[in-house]
Amino acid sequence: MSVQEFYSRWAALYDLVSRRTPGVPRTRARVADALGLELGDTVVEMGCGTGANLERLRDRVGPEGRVVGVDFSPGVLDRAADHVARNGWRNVHLVRGDATHPPIDEADAVLATFVVGMFADPAGVVERWCDLLGPGGRIALLNAARSRRPYGPLVNLPFRGFVRVSTPERRRLETPAHELLDRRVEAGHAALDRRCERVVHEEHALGLLRLAAGRVL
């Protein structure tokens, strides 16, 4: 099964988890705030999935702004499109494409939630997003990784299980999946640090969720 087929098959469950998991909706709101969006901005969400962030982004750019969601999986995009159509959001646009080489010419801000850990070269991808934005553009990343807090071993064990079952079978060969995820998240966030100023780092949900945001130099 391809990665696209995997996420398409589990789109309904992913939609439920992304919207209802305790603590995640509040953290999604926080990362949207961290972008510092203004009315009229164009914001691109890389790997928008089923659209859990679209309403928050639209609220912050207003009706005169534009929200673009990019994802490579047709199944999750179909669910995102249902949300957009049901709410009548005319300034929210969905594009099927590869977030590692996004089919977007320009934007004021880029958001990526739970995506960086999927890339073989997360640092290179974040660098390309910064190039797309240019100086002054804003970027925010939210990713899951093992908790570094003192009680980490208690929460990391179930987290490891979740990472394994939510990873496409082909990628499970790159075991242990949770260690690979940690390395990729750290690499992506380090690239943001290198390219940005006014960088913000936060941890949420018992330290399992890491937020990084900044303004491109």
Describe the protein's architecture and organization.
With 217 residues, this protein is of the alpha/beta class. Helix content is 46%, strand content 21%. It has a 7-stranded mixed β-sheet with strand order 3-2-1-4-5-7-6, sandwiched between helices.
How big a fraction of the residues is strand?
Answer: 15-25%
Give the overall pLDDT as a whole number.
Answer: 88
How big is the Rg?
A: 16 Å
State the strand order across the main sheet: 3-2-1-4-5-7-6
Question: Which of globular, elongated, flat, extended, rod-shaped describes the shape?
Answer: globular
Number of strands: 7
Given the structure, what is the number of helices? 9
What kind of assembly state do the chains in view correspond to? Answer: single chain
- Main sheet record: 7 strands, mixed
Secondary-structure-based class equals alpha/beta
